Amino acid sequence: MATEPAQAAEAYHPRPMGGPWGLKISGIGAALPEKVLTNADLTAWMDTSDEWIRERTGIGERRIGGSTSGLSTEAAQLALADAGVEASEIDQVILATTSPDHICPGTAPAVARELGILAGAFDLQAACSGWVYGLIVANGLLLQGMDKILVIGAETLDRITDYHDRGTGILFGNGAGAAVVERDTTGAGQLLSWDMGSNGNYVHILYADHGDVLQMDGKEVFRQAVTVMQRSATAAMDRAGLTADDIDLIIPHQANIRIVEAAWKRLGFDMDRTAMVLERTGNTSAASIPLALDHALSENRVEPGSTVMFLGFGAGMTWACAIVRWAG
Ligand code: ACO
Question: What is the pLDDT of residues 16-40, one digit of tens each?
C-alpha cells in the first residue's frame, strides 16, 4: 500500500556515512506479469512458427501487461524480504529501465513511494545494459558511504513493441528483477572489476521514437552484440587478473541464445556455467540479468566465494560487465 506523504516524511532518516566497504547482493526478487504470450499465440497473426523462433532466438514465451512501477515494486518487496532489510534502511533507489511509466517524471520516485522510501530515487536509461550500469553506480555510492541500495531492472516493453513485426515482436517481454546491494563490512564480497562503454554511432540499429515502437536492424544488433560482449568481458577479466576458467557463473543479458553462444565461443565460456531464463521470459531488457540471477540463486548455483560475471549489452549501443566475488 502506498505510504501517505506525511508518514513517508517521518520514515526519512538521513543516514550516517563512512566506514569500510565491500559489496554484497544480500537479497533478490523477481516479478513477471501473469499474462503469457507464447510463440504459438504469435502464429495466430504472424507468419512465423514456434520452431523458427526457438531455433533462431531460444525464446519459447514472454510475459505482457503490468506497469514498470508495479513490477518494480513487487520485485523490490521480495528483494527486501529476502535480504531481511526494512524499506526505511534503503539509502538509494536506482531503477534501470528503457520503458518508464512516464517520460517525466522518472519511475523510481513512484516505486520508492510505494515502498515507503524517501531516499534518493532515479531512473537509469542504458537500455539492456542498465542493471549492470546500476550495480556499478551502486558500488560507487557505497564507496561514498551509503549502506543499502536497491538496484532494480524493470520493463514493460509490450508498450513499445509491435507484436505484428516479425523482427521485434518475437523477442520482447515484460518483467522486473531487484537486488538489495549492501556495503559488506567483512570485505568478503567485492566488485572485483567492471567495464562500461557506449558507441553512439549505433543509435540507428535499435531505437524507439516518442510514441512509436522499437525499430531494429536485427542482423547488425547481433553482430555488434557479440563484439561488445567479448570486448567488455575481456576488459573486466583483464582488470581483475582473471581468466575464463576463474568465472564460476556468467549471467548475460538474455536477448538471443545464439548471441550468447557466439560470444562464448570467442571467450572460452561454456553454457554449463551460464544462467539463462530467456526461454520463458523473452528479452526483458534491463530486467533480464536480475531475473536470471534470481533463477540461478533459486537453483543454488552461487555460493560464498563464487566469482560471478554480469554481462550486458543493449541499445545505444551500450555495454557493461561487472565481476563480483559473492559474499554469501
Ligand atoms: N518467423 C519466421 N521466419 C522469419 C521471421 C520470423 N519471426 N523473421 C524472419 N524470418 C525469415 C525471413 O523472411 C527470412 O526468410 P528468407 O531466407 O526466405 O528470406 C529468414 O527468416 C531470415 O530472416 P532474417 O531477417 O535474416 O533473420 P535472422 O536470422 O537475422 O533472425 C532475428 C532475425 C532473430 C531478429 C535476429 O536477427 C536476431 O536475433 N538479432 C538480434 C536481435 C536482438 O537480440 N535484439 C535485442 C538485443 S539489444 C536489446 O536487448 C535491447
Answer: 544 456 999 999 999 999 999 999 9
